[in-house]
Structures are given as structure tokens and as C-alpha cells.
Amino acid sequence: MRKRAIRQIPNAITVLRILLVPLVIFLLIQADSAWELWLAVLFFVLSAATDGVDGAIARRKNLVSKTGQLLDPIADKALLGATLITLSSIGMIGWIPTLLIIIRELLVTIYRLAVAKRRVIAASSGGKLKTIIQSTAIPIVIAPIEFLGDWVLVLNQLVIWVAVAVTLWSGFDFFRKQIGR
What we know:
Elements: H1 2-7, H2 9-30, H3 34-60, H4 66-89, H5 95-115, H6 125-142, H7 151-179
């Protein structure tokens, strides 16, 4: 029984990441003070940071599972997608970057699900880089640091468009490698 419970730790962490998504979204939507935005940053970063934790535990303890390999990218997409949609809805970023990122994520996810019965496609280094860039860009945009000056608006645009570029590049690379199979 104990061994089975230990085997579920990485998947439990992934589920926790999914459960943090509504909290981040709630904080963003109702934020009317800087501390609420900082809390959104905190919970976003906590959720994003546990992405590496669940994977590291699974690999180190030889607990990698097909369920985990499927849930992990879904947790990433739930956090990143919901946060991007919320940021666009409240006017913190434009809709074009959000749509470009979400379309790429949907195409890759649909493909992964379509081939899941035959094989599970593990995350590539490009996909991991994309997730790191997105997970870094979003807290920068959320952080209430406008008091530092107008350059913060330029920084916000820059980090989002870098995230878009890396996201699109990793999507093209993903499909290039899949077509080559």
C-alpha cells in the first residue's frame, strides 16, 4: 500500500498544479491591489515550479508513468492557457500573442492525444524551453512594477513576444520531428 502511495506522488503534484489554476485566475480577475497581483505571481510561480519537481521525482525514483506523461503537459497548458486568456481579457496583454500560443498548444496536444494509444510523446528540450520562457514571461507581465517607469510596458511586450517566438519555433520543431517518424 505504501509503495503504491509513493508511486502516486508525482501525479499528485501534477494534480496540485492543476488545482492552483483557478486560484491564479481568481486573483487576476478580482485584483484591485498590488498585493493580490503579487499573490497571483506567487501561486503562478509555485505551480510552474512544481512542474520540474514532479518530473524530477518521477525520473529519480523511476516512477515515470503514461498517466504522468499525459497529465504533465495538460497541467502546463491549463496554467499557461488560462492565465494568458485571463491576461488578455483584463487587458494586460493583447489577444494576438495569446491566440498564437494557444493555437500552437492545442495543435500539439491534439496530436499527442491522437497518437496516445500507440505511443506517448515525451516532452522535447524545445518544449521544455518554451514552457520555461512562458513561465518566466507571464509573472513578469503580472507583477505590479509599473512604478518603475514606462519601460516596464516595453519589457512586458518584449517578454510576451519572445515567448510567442519560442512557442512557435518549438511547435514547428515538434511537427518536423513527428513528420520524420
